[in-house]
Structures are given as C-alpha cells and as structure tokens.
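quick one before i forget lol
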Amino acid sequence: MTIGESLRPAEGRFEGRTHHFPLRVYFEDTDVAGIVYYANYLRFMERARSDLLRALDIDQRGTLEAGEGVYAVADVSIRYKLPAKLGDDLRIVTELQEIRAASVLIHQRVMRGEEMLTDALVTAAFLSPEGRPKRQPRAWVERFERLQGEV
C-alpha cells in the first residue's frame, strides 16, 4: 500500500438516518487556554454537513459551477453546553429534521463520547446564482427522503 492509498481525509458514516462525522481538536481550533473557540463549532458542523451531502452523492460544486444554485446557511440556533478542548476526539451527529421546497432543516450535535457539547438547528437554503431562494434539485430531495425513510 502506498502512502496516498493509506492516508485519506476523515469521512463520516451513516447509522440509520443519522450521519456521524469524526473530528479531532487541534491547536488552531482553540484559544490560549486550550478551549475550542465558539465560532469553530460552526466550522465543524459545516464540515459534517458537507460530508453528509457527499455521502449522499450530492455534487454541490458541480451544481454551483453549472449555474444552478448552492446551499447557504440561512439560520442557526446553537446552544453551547460544555467546552471541547485541545486533543479531544469529537463526533458531529447530523440528522435531517425537515425537507422543504427550497431549504432543509438540520439538527446537529457536537459530541465527545456520550457528552453533548453543542446542540444546533441549522436551516440550509438553496439559492439561485442571484442569491434568491430556489427549489432544491428534485434528485437531492429524493435522496433526503430516502434517508429519512430509513430506520
């Protein structure tokens, strides 16, 4: 096995309807006290959402480059419960809550083992190249619906 074959970026996996994304806290993620800076939780959740879409074979980049549109976060409600620290192994747990015509409501939690560190509801809106809400691609909605139908 070559180095290129053995080293791969972190990838999440599905357990039923739930997507789990592993992540380690590095020095760059923390403040001087070794505590994760609050805005970095949003970055962690973004990575997990992007990985979920990739795992569902949703090509955001191709859709954007084709001029069809792109997802943008329209709303976030987040509750910080416990701090993550330098060196922690985290898991971002993502579940689709509701599929709408032009958006998706997503529940995300940052976990350290069984401890919930943050709890968030994210609305990702599908926008036209001009920045206006637009219906999501039907194929994407169908993939979301199949995921929600799993037990």
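fyi The two ends are 37 Å apart (CA to CA).
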